[in-house]
Every structure is written in structure tokens, then in C-alpha cells.
């Protein structure tokens, strides 16, 4: 009997690759194996000793800072408490969770991320427009016309210090940087306008910063805050193969982020053979909902051979244990399910021009582009019925077992397996 290859979709659960598929036909593509030899304290010491495009934190007279960190859909910063302890001159520290358009995380997540003591002693603000507790105020317009409405809790601060993970992002180029504010702490109106720049622009995708209209729009926000007397600095990090910080930069949100993006690019892009069949895993927190899990499909599209008859196939494996993740997105993909890709793009362009864009349509746009030549199949042993029903309604293949998704597919030779599909960018070899 052949050796069984287990494919893990979270820390505890896996599915088996059918034994009928020989292991020699599987090409495994993963980020570069790299491990930090330094402690978090050592990395922070190096980062603050060499600020990027900024004054040192020690020379700053900080009285009322905010420390921003990511919600439960991202890899959280493991050193929020370290940052707070460094703000020795501060009279009042706010902790702000950058939820963007997502729902707020649980209290357990917050305690785990910041620690019980900080959770008890600091004010924790959940910045999410999906609720009645947040108020947003305009700080001006970007050169593209985005009215930037941010959480009012930021406006009484003299320093904003954000700490996000920097890995590839399927339309903002990379995570991190100014993304902590836009979309992290912005209104739905602002998020929707910013995300609308995806439509019809080939530079609004993973790995792209310069020329990417979404990222360039985000990158105007730090200057807008500076004009109001609010300094915005990042203490972002690139994680290693165990999700521990490998590199930390402190400084200007644009310049420090760009340097980290180059480190991230070197780790998380990997070349491989073009294929017509790939299995990608929406691993970790990004696999909990269908809305977030499809990012792995978008990134894996880079390795697929463009083919229309028949299409190439990507099998997306994810837990989906929290369901769909966005009712707005669910309604939109149902609306567009029967339309050809070119009509979807035209309609999205019209909606963007009319200001009718919402924060989920950038994903519909990417779906339309990728699904023109790629067939998506979803495998999830744990998905609730609501996710299964939605996929059936929009005619996307769904199965509980990997064998079922593979049994009618014909493939010649190579299958590409991307076990960390939420962060890996596979690139076709020339």
C-alpha cells in the first residue's frame, strides 16, 4: 500500500491525498523555510535603534498614544504588550483593534493577544463599522477622491503605533503598513471607495506596491494624519516558518513597510511548474470563513495554466467552521453567478463610477478574472450547511472529502500542492 500524504487544513485536522495519486506526481510549494535566531526583544531593540524614515521613539514626547493591532482574521502581533511597556512617558494608552469591514473578535482573542493585565488596565477599542459603538470622522480626501473617514478614537492621539504582519495580499500588494488605518480603522464608505480601485486594474494584486492604486491610496493616509498633528508609525513584522517574527521594522508607514515587503517577497513567493490541477489550503485563521478562504484560491491562480476548454482546476481545502463570513459578499456572488466574466467587470466598473461599490466587490472582481480560466472546487469536512448551500446556489463544486473532488478529474503528470495557500504566492517558472 502506498504512503499516505496528510494535508493539514489547521493545526489539528487533515485530509488524506488519495493513494491512487502517486506522490511523485505531487509538487509541494511552500514559503522558504526560515527561522529567527533572535528573541522578540532583540528584534525590537534592533528595529527601534534603526528607525526607517522617522525620528527615534525615545526622542518623541508621547503622552496619548494608540497601539493598533490586527483582528482575528490575521496573524496577530505577539509584542503588543512590549510596545505599551516602551511608552513610559504616556499618560493614556489606547489599544485599538483594526477590524476593517470584519466583525469584532472575541474577548478570549483579545486577552490572548494583549495579555490579561493589559486587557484589564488599558482601554480596548474595537474598530468595526458593523455595529453602533464606533463613530467615524473625515480627515480629508486622497488625490483619487477617497473621503477618508477614520475612527474618532484616533483623533485625540498624538502618536499612532501600529503592529501588523507583512505577508502578500491579493489586491493591496502586501499586508501591513498604512493598511492599519485604511481599511483597518475606517468607515465602510471609505473602505468601499478604496477597494473600488481594484476594478479593471492589473496592478491591484499581490506583490504590487508601486502603481497599485489601492495601496497608493492607503499610503496617503499617514500624511493626512500628520497634518492634524498625529504621528503615525509602524512596528510591523515579517513572520518566519513558525509564525514568529523574523524581521521587525519601526518607522514611516510607507518606507518601513516597503522594506519589509521585500523581505516578505523573498520568503513567500516560490517558483514552480505551471499546472492544470492544484490543491491549495486556506490555512490558519484565513480558513475559518469562505469569504477569507478564497484568498488562497486567488494567490494560487498564479501557478495555473490559462485554459478555457477544459479549464484548469484549483481545489480549495479549508475548515470553513465559521461559515460564509460576509452576507454582503454572499448576496453579491449570487447576483453575479450566471453572468460571464466580461459582463461582471463592466457592471462593477459602472457601480464604482456611480459610487455604489461596497467593500466585498473587489473579491467578486478577482473571482471573475480567475474563474474565466480556472474551475474552483471547495473541500471542507467541517463547513456548516449555510456555506454548502451558498456554493451550490452559485454552482461551485463542494465536497466533504478530497477523494470526491478528485475522482472525475483527468490530469497528466503534475499536481501542485500549496499547503499554506493563504500566504504563499506560487509563480510559474518560465
Structure description:
The structure is a single chain. By secondary structure, the protein is α/β, with parallel strands linked by helices. The protein folds into 2 domains: 6-30 and 273-428, 2-enoyl-CoA Hydratase, Chain A, domain 1; 40-267, LarA, N-terminal domain (Rossmann fold). It is 29% helix and 22% strand. The chain has 14 helices and 20 strands. The chain has helices spanning 40-49, 80-86, 107-114, 116-121, 188-195, 213-218, 221-227, 255-268, 290-300, 327-336, 341-354, 361-370, 385-393, 402-406; strands spanning 6-8, 14-16, 26-28, 65-70, 94-98, 123-127, 136-141, 147-151, 159-163, 168-169, 173-174, 231-239, 245-251, 269-272, 277-281, 312-317, 374-379, 397-399, 415-418, 425-428. The chain has a 6-stranded parallel β-sheet. Helix 11 (341-354) runs antiparallel to helix 12. The relative contact order is 0.15.
Rg (C-alpha, Å) = 21 Å
CATH superfamily of the largest domain: LarA, N-terminal domain
Can you identify the CATH class of the largest domain?
A: Alpha Beta
What does the largest sheet look like? 6 strands, parallel
Mean pLDDT: 93
Amino acid at each position: 500500500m502506498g504512503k499516505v500524504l496528510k494535508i493539514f487544513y489547521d493545526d489539528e485536522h487533515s485530509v488524506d491525498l488519495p493513494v491512487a495519486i502517486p506522490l511523485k506526481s505531487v509538487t509541494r510549494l511552500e514559503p522558504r523555510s526560515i527561522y529567527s535566531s533572535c528573541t522578540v526583544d532583540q528584534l525590537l531593540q534592533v528595529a527601534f535603534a534603526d528607525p526607517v524614515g522617522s525620528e527615534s521613539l525615545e526622542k518623541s514626547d508621547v503622552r496619548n498614544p494608540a497601539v493598533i493591532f490586527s483582528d482575528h482574521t490575521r496573524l496577530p502581533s505577539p509584542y503588543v504588550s512590549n510596545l505599551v511597556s516602551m511608552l513610559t512617558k504616556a499618560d493614556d494608552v489606547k489599544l485599538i483593534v483594526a477590524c476593517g469591514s470584519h466583525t469584532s473578535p472575541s474577548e478570549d482573542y483579545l486577552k490572548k493577544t494583549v495579555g490579561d493585565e493589559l486587557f484589564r488596565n488599558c482601554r480596548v477599542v474595537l474598530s468595526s463599522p458593523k455595529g453602533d459603538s464606533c463613530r467615524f470622522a473625515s480627515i480629508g480626501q486622497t488625490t483619487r477622491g477617497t473621503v477618508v473617514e477614520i475612527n474618532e478614537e484616533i483623533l485625540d492621539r498624538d502618536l499612532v503605533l501600529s503592529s501588523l504582519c507583512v505577508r502578500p495580499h491579493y489586491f493591496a500588494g502586501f499586508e501591513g503598513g498604512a493598511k492599519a488605518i485604511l481599511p483597518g480603522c475606517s468607515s465602510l464608505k471609505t473602505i468601499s471607495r478604496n477597494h473600488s480601485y481594484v476594478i479593471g486594474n492589473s496592478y491591484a494584486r499581490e506583490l504590487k506596491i508601486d502603481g497599485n492604486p489601492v495601496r497608493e491610496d492607503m499610503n496617503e493616509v499617514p500624511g493626512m494624519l500628520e497634518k492634524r498633528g498625529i504621528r503615525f508609525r509602524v512596528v510591523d513584522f515579517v513572520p518566519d516558518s513558525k509564525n514568529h517574527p523574523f524581521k521587525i521594522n519601526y518607522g514611516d508607514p510607507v518606507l518601513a513597510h516597503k522594506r519589509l515587503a521585500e523581505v516578505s517577497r523573498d520568503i513567500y513567493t516560490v517558483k514552480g511548474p505551471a499546472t492544470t490541477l492544484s490543491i491549495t489550503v486556506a490555512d490558519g485563521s484565513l480558513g475559518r470563513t469562505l469569504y477569507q478562504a478564497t484568498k488562497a484560491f486567488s494567490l494560487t491562480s498564479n501557478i495555473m495554466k490559462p485554459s478555457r476548454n477544459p479549464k484548469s482546476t484549483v481545489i480549495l481545502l479549508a475548515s470553513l467552521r465559521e461559515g460564509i463570513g460576509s452576507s454582503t459578499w454572499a448576496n453579491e456572488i449570487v447576483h453575479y453567478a450566471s453572468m460571464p466574466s466580461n459582463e461582471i467587470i463592466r457592471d462593477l466598473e459602472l457601480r464604482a463610477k456611480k459610487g455604489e461599490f461596497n467593500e466585498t466587490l473587489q473579491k467578486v472582481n478577482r473571482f471573475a478574472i480567475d474563474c474565466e480560466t480556472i474551475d474552483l472546487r471547495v473541500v471542507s469536512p467541517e463547513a456548516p450547511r449555510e456555506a454548502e448551500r451558498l456554493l451550490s446556489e452559485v454552482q461551485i463544486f463542494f465536497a466533504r472529502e478530497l477523494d470526491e473532488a478528485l475522482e472525475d478529474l483527468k490530469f497528466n503528470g503534475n499536481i501542485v500542492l500549496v499547503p499554506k495557500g493563504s500566504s504563499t504566492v506560487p509563480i510559474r517558472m518560465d
